[in-house]
Amino acid sequence: MRDIAELTVLLRAPTEMPDGLKLARDDFREGWNRVRTYNAKGLEKKIKARRWEFIPASKCIVAAGLGESPKQAIARALDHALAQVSSHLNAIEIRNIQTTQYPWFWVVRLSVNAFRIQQSEAMPVPEGQTSFSDRLTEEQRCIRQMDMDRIPETGSPLSNQFSAASLTL
User: Fold this and answer.
1) Opening angle at CA 47, ends 86 and 58, nearest 5
2) Rg (CA), the chain
3) Among 16-20, 79-83, 126-130, the least confident range
4) What whole-number distance in Å separates Cα of residue 151 and Cα of residue 162?
5) Which of 118, 64, 51 is nearest to 89 (CA)?
6) Could you say which of 15, 107, 145, 167 has the lowest number of CB atoms within 10 Å?
7) How many CB atoms lie within 10 A of CB 154?
């Protein structure tokens, strides 16, 4: 797997692009390509300059993965996130990656924003369109949710297990 970092953009293969817009892409996973040169904001500017639409999905996707290394945990979390991306959305940007190391494994939580790239605004898109300020609010909600997911409830089997594990080390 190629290295994945925050602000990485992935495009479904094949995704139609405006004439004249050449993107440097790497094969990433079956059905997805990694864009090497742009984050979502830069890609949006290039697409809109060619009078195409770059429509954000109404909600971010939060996913988690476990692995023996951070790279393996990121790959698994990304697999979970990609499985949640609706088929009519053809681009994603990885917004936030949080890694936590435990004694024998890594946990990664990541958030992904999905987009629809299309030529005409008139084409129906099942996901609701959002403004830029709505996207910021949704991103803040998404990050808050990731933070809340990190904190095991007091008295839960998971928190008791890790408390016991840290005491016996």
Assistant:
1) 35
2) 18
3) 126-130
4) 12
5) 118
6) 167
7) 8
